[in-house]
Design a protein that fits this description.
- The complex is a heterotrimer of chains A (494), B (103) and C (501).
- Chain A has 494 residues and is α/β, with parallel strands linked by helices.
- Chain A folds into three domains: 3-258 and 407-449 and 463-483, Amidase signature (AS) enzymes, CATH 3.90.1300.10; 264-304 and 384-401, no CATH class; 305-381, no CATH class.
- Helices cover 39% and strands 12% of the residues of chain A.
- In chain A, helix 10 packs across helix 12 (359-372).
- The longest helix of chain A is centred in the C-terminal third of the chain and has 24 residues, at 378-401.
- Chain B is mainly alpha-helical and 103 residues long.
- Chain B is 41% helix and 9% strand.
- Chain B contains four helices and three strands.
- In chain B, helix 1 packs across helix 2 (23-40).
- Chain B starts with 6 loop residues before the first helix and ends in a 7-residue tail after the last strand.
- The termini of chain C are far apart.
- In chain C, a hairpin with a 4-residue loop joins strand 13 (273-278) and strand 14 (283-289).
- Chain C is built from 16 helices and 15 strands.
- In chain C, 49% of the residues are buried.
- Chain C has 501 residues and is an alpha+beta fold.
- The longest helix of chain C has 20 residues, at 246-265.
- Classes of the chains: A alpha/beta (494), B mainly alpha (103), C alpha+beta (501).
- At the A-B interface, helix 10, helix 11, helix 12, helix 13 and helix 14 of A face helix 1, helix 2, helix 3 and strand 3 of B.
- Strand 3 of chain B pairs antiparallel with strand 9 (161-165) of chain C, so a sheet runs across the interface.
- The structure holds magnesium ion and zinc ion (ZN).
Chain lengths: 494, 103, 501
């Protein structure tokens, strides 16, 4: 038997459908793989072998009985630990939720279960999804399988590492400022942030409500599309969910044709701060797209450069409010202040939030509290909301000229653990290319475009498309994937 | 706007946010936040130079009137509701004394 | 903690010689929707603790709100009934503050974009009409309920811990805020009461809430400050929270006028703070000081789409409004044939809708008025419980009157029936049966009693035989006494005259 863990989800699905492999075999292979490599990667915070195998056995039985099943039935998946799962802890990577088991499933999890995907476990992340390196997890950093001394990116670093290291063929991530696409780039896999409102946020622990989206992570564009169709679509429990048909992303991923496609290269995403090895791979990818018949147009989106400033006001503001509920009253950690035998609720809240939140979370809560406070609201939050409008206008103008935009996903390849820990602002600047899509609500995809010649590490290219035109990402992404094969990890590099 | 945050400002924000920061944390945040604020304060200049009225964007998708019919749907059982509670008593969530308002 | 030294309370009338009260009222109405504002949980009053909760109203991680259409509809109808503009586009906002009864530690409310604004309603006091301007009516959600354990019973202060029930958390509220109400000082307490009472009547007429102050489905906050007579400088205001009855609204205004006057007379400063009202003695006491620390950090709720009611919908809802209060009052007065004075008393007592319902249940208007403004108003005054909150329904009052009309009881017995119904002994019929209150009109029993009375009073009997029929009163009295009031007096008289003719 070939190594099942190295199959793309689409190929595994085909083998499951024709009966050459069972879901129990495939799921067991992933569990064995996790047991073998996760000690080095720390990609999983919780593994549910029993639950996953039970789902797998159920799918096998139904298939054997001749039932017609959804395409991905029996294909195992890993779920970012920000997404609620009944029966498995959901910690958000935080001490404040250690051991919490949600009494309800996120809508995306309900859909995974309905489609018969065995859930292998919950993946590591920066605490409450706040970070670009996974170093802000309360449960230790996840590591990059290309070099375990390096970060896998964040915040969906556990999901990215798991998929890249063949611990799972598929994973769910969440993307608030690049948290799917950037770790995708750092680990050499495909990751998609769908259009805001395209995938339900119900049951996904909120970081910044107006920016968060759940999306697929996989080792091929087609695999991501297959998963996209499972999780997307209107959810009446999420008021920001779009009530319209899901774009035909699978069809687009199978097509993958850029002939005649107008591709805009964003002028602002180059130059200072961009690693030469990243830039070279990117330029080659552009040349190959042109060779394949795409029309390459340089476009300018001047407001994009202000994305980080706007993002670091909007996001922490929403964070400060969204995370207020973690107060030791109804669930989660409860800590009493030292030396106070009879503390008040107020004191217990404050002591718990000090003990339960990590530095980055506290930093953003304080920043957001400041940005929203009276006297500063207009200058900070209000202005940031206007910059969002300017960025959205830049997108609109750009999409009048071109069908998709193309840029590096991140300015550098994966850095060493601890390298940027002392300078929060430096870390924030890593998200320069991904943030505009979140601010404007448009979709984006990371596609691996080789290894940088200066670091030997994966580089990602990012396509962006207009809202609700997610299929354009899959079409362009699939084409690029054929032109520039993704780097394949031989074995975890320790 | 240049508004260096004083240590007291940070302490006040921490109390608004109900986080009892240690002295060290107050020092560190007092040192870090001004640099971040300097960077993000750029949004004001951007908006000013954009000139004409720019509408603030609170929601990335321009939808309105998303309503639900007034029909009951099943919630959680009491046991499920209390399942995560640090403490409970008489089917209620037990919390430390609330001193916010004095009678 | 807030008033440096205790200053004397100035008598209300005395205070008005130097100061003019400036009032504002904030009323929270709990809507009678079947489900909560942002989730499908049931809203029944008095359910077992934490049985009407879900991830949304418990504020569990990941839960998201969805707006109840009926609540928006009710908000618009309330706005229209208060002659407000209805926003073409508005949003919900988050009001951020930490409190254990608030599951998300923010209240989903509306801030600078209320659904209804710039309205008014006209209230009538002692035949005068006063226009109350409405600044806004906005949608928000209620909090959970806490039970304080240990220390003085049920008091927050000195409690060891508290127990929280979130059944009420997330129930839709409409907050109705007036602009400054400036009326002649002596009228202020009554105008405040009449306004709150009128809101209650309006909510009932709209069918959007049961508007029961005693159960908290209608709650009033009284904001009050004083300015020196003739001056235009506004004073510092106090906010007296959660006043639980119409009578208390009036008392709270009177008390705060006296308290503020005492402070100002002493040359001290009124502290801006929230205050608690005490039903027991009509006083208020200091609650939370309103400081700069109170910074709610409002921002538009990103989890909810804006609300943009179409003009067609608003017009359609306008068509469902009940008759405006002033027209309704005129029509009812004519239908009931009440004098101006009767009507004024009825409105002043807050009995208008009670009489409407009693008449609907079959009683004659004058009879309904007699019971509500007589017997029941007396009990309301004795107990300090609002008329509407007395544990008797208009249908039961009509039922008692029906028993009188049928001759089963008389007015005197009816008072005992009221006692029984108010004591929770059951329906009027059940009380009559269990207390044995039915009048005796059975000739056998009455005849024997009459015979005994004649025998015991031979001289009176002789007078009647001689044609002095007015002497029958003494014999009737004797029979009634023997029968403990439960005899049919008319029939007794007939029997006496039959036997002595
Ligand atoms: Mg309010
Ligand atoms: Zn609920």
């Amino acid at each position: 038997m070939s190594d099942l863990t190295r199959l793309h989800a689409s190929d595994l699905a085909a083998q499951l459908a024709d009966g050459s492999v069972t879901s129990v075999e495939a799921t067991q292979a992933q569990i064995d793989r996790i047991a073998a490599v996760d000690g080095d990667l720390n990609a999983f915070l919780h593994v549910d072998a029993e639950g996953a195998l039970a789902t797998a056995a159920d799918v096998d039985a139904r298939r054997a009985a001749g039932e017609s099943l959804p395409t991905l039935a029996g294909v195992p998946i890993a779920v970012k630990d920000l997404i609620n799962t009944v029966g498995q802890p959901t910690t958000a990577g935080s001490k404040i939720l250690e051991g919490w088991v949600p009494p309800y499933d996120a809508t995306v999890v309900t859909r995974l279960r309905a489609a018969g995907l065995p859930i292998l476990g919950k993946t590591n992340l920066d605490e409450f999804a706040m970070g670009s390196s996974n170093e802000h997890s309360a449960y230790g950093p996840a590591r990059n399988p290309w070099d375990t001394g390096r970060i896998p990116g964040g915040s969906s670093g556990g999901s990215a590492a798991a998929v890249a290291a063949f611990e799972a063929p598929l994973a769910l991530g969440t993307d608030t400022g690049g948290s799917i696409r950037q770790p995708g780039a750092m680990t050499g896999i495909v990751g998609v942030k769908p259009t805001y409102g395209g995938v339900s946020r119900y049951g996904v622990i909120a970081m910044a409500s107006s920016l968060d989206q759940v999306g697929p992570m996989a080792r091929s564009v087609l695999d991501a599309a297959l998963l996209h169709e499972v999780i997307a679509g209107h959810d009446p429990r999420d008021s920001t969910s779009i009530d319209a048909p899901v774009p035909s992303v699978v069809e687009a991923a199978r097509r993958g044709d850029v002939a005649g496609l107008r591709i805009g290269v964003v002028r602002e995403f180059a130059g200072e701060g961009f690693q030469p090895g990243v830039q070279r791979r990117f330029d080659e990818a552009v040349a190959k797209l042109a060779d394949a018949g795409a029309e390459i147009v340089e476009v300018s989106c001047p407001s994009f450069t202000h994305g980080i400033a706007a993002y670091y006001l909007v996001m922490p503001s929403e964070v400060s409010s969204n995370l207020a509920r973690f107060d030791a009253m109804r669930y989660g950690l409860r800590v009493s202040p030292d030396g106070n035998p009879s503390p008040s609720a107020e004191q217990v809240m404050a002591a718990t939030r000090d003990a339960g939140f990590g530095d980055e979370v506290k930093r953003r809560i304080i920043l957001g509290t400041y940005a929203l406070s009276s006297g500063y609201y207009d200058a900070y939050y209000g202005s940031a909301q206007k910059v969002r409008t300017l960025i959205a206008q830049d997108f609109t103008a750009a999409f009048e000229q071109v069908d998709v935009l193309f840029s590096p996903t991140a300015p550098t390849t994966a850095w060493r653990l601890g390298e940027k820990s002392d300078d929060p602002l430096a870390m924030y600047l890593e998200d320069v290319c991904t943030i505009p899509a979140n601010l404007a609500g448009v979709p984006g995809i990371n596609v691996p475009i080789g290894l940088a010649d200066d670091s030997g590490l994966p580089v990602g290219g990012q396509f962006l498309a207009p809202a609700q035109a997610d299929e354009r990402l899959y079409n362009a992404g699939a084409a690029l994937e054929r032109l520039v094969p993704a780097p394949v990890l031989e074995e975890v590099v320790r | 706007m240049s508004s260096p945050l004083s240590r007291e400002d940070v302490a006040h924000l921490a109390s608004l946010a109900r986080i009892s920061l240690s002295e060290d944390e107050l020092d560190r945040l007092g040192a870090e936040l001004p640099a971040i604020l300097d960077h993000v304060a750029a949004v004001q200049g951007v908006v000013e130079s954009a000139g004409a009225d720019v509408a603030p964007m609170s929601h990335p998708v321009p939808i309105t009137n998303v309503f639900r019919a007034d029909e009951p749907s099943p919630g959680l059982s009491r046991d499920e509701a209390l399942s995560g509670a640090p403490a409970s008593e008489e089917d209620r969530f037990l919390v430390p004394k609330i001193l916010g308002e004095e009678a | 903690m807030s008033t440096p030294t205790k200053t004397p309370l100035v008598p209300f009338d005395d205070a008005l010689t130097r100061y003019e009260p400036v009032m504002g009222l904030e009323v929270h109405v709990e809507l009678g929707t079947r489900t909560k504002m942002f989730c499908g949980c049931a809203t029944e009053f008095g359910a077992e603790p934490n049985t009407q909760v879900c991830p949304v109203c418990l504020g569990l991680p990941g839960a998201l709100p969805v707006v109840n259409a009926k609540a928006v509809e009710s908000a618009i109808r309330i706005g229209l009934a208060l002659n407000c503009e209805i926003a073409e586009w508005c949003r919900f906002a988050r009001k951020n503050y930490f409190y254990p009864d608030q599951p998300k530690n923010f209240q989903t409310s509306q801030y600078d974009e209320p659904i209804a604004f710039d309205g008014y309603t006209d209230v009538e006091v002692d035949g005068e009409v006063y226009r109350i301007e409405i600044e806004r009516a906005h949608m928000e959600e209620d909090t959970g309920k806490s039970l304080h354990v240990g220390g003085a019973t049920g008091r927050i202060h000195g409690a060891d811990h508290s127990l929280l029930d979130y059944n009420r958390a997330g129930i839709p509220l409409i907050e109705i805020v007036t602009r400054t109400i400036e009326v002649p000082g002596d009228k202020a307490p009554a105008v405040a009461r009449a306004y709150v009472n009128q809101l209650r009547d309006l909510m009932l007429a709209l069918g959007v809430s049961d508007a029961r102050m005693d159960q908290g489905s209608l709650r009033a906050d009284v904001n009050l400050s004083l300015k020196p007579t003739g001056s235009s400088t506004l004073g510092t205001r106090s906010e007296t929270k959660n006043v639980n009855s119409f009578r208390s609204v009036e008392r709270a205004v009177r008390y705060e006028v006296g308290r503020h006057a005492g402070i100002l007379d002493a040359g001290q400063k009124v502290v801006q703070e929230t205050r608690h009202f005490h039903e027991s003695d009509g006083s208020t006491s200091s609650g939370r000081e309103k400081s700069d620390a109170e910074d709610y950090r409002y921002f538009p709720e990103p989890d909810l789409a804006p609300v943009a009611p179409s003009r067609a919908w608003v017009d359609e809802l306008r068509g469902t409004l009940p008759e405006p209060p002033s027209e309704r009052r005129k029509r009812l007065q004519a239908e009931w044939e009440f004098s101006d004075l009767d009507m004024r008393d009825t409105i002043g007592a807050g009995a208008l809708e009670l009489i409407v319902a009693t008449v609907e249940a079959g009683a004659a208007p004058q009879a309904a008025r007699k019971w509500w403004l007589g017997e029941l108003a007396r009990r309301s005054n004795d107990t300090g419980v609002d008329l509407a909150a007395l544990p008797i329904t208009p249908a039961q009052v009509a039922g008692i009157q029906a028993l009188i009309d049928a001759g089963k009881i008389n007015d005197k017995l009816a008072r005992d029936v009221f006692d029984g119904v108010l004591a929770g002994e059951g329906t009027p019929e059940e009380v009559v049966a269990s207390r044995g209150l039915e009048v005796v009109s059975d000739d056998g029993a009455l005849g024997e009693a009459v015979d005994r009375a004649i025998e015991a009073n031979p001289d009176v009997a002789d007078k009647i035989r001689d044609g002095k029929l007015q002497a029958a009163g003494a014999l009737i009295g004797a029979v009634m006494k023997e029968m403990r009031g439960q005899a049919d007096a008319g029939r007794v008289r007939e029997l006496i005259l039959e036997k002595l003719s």
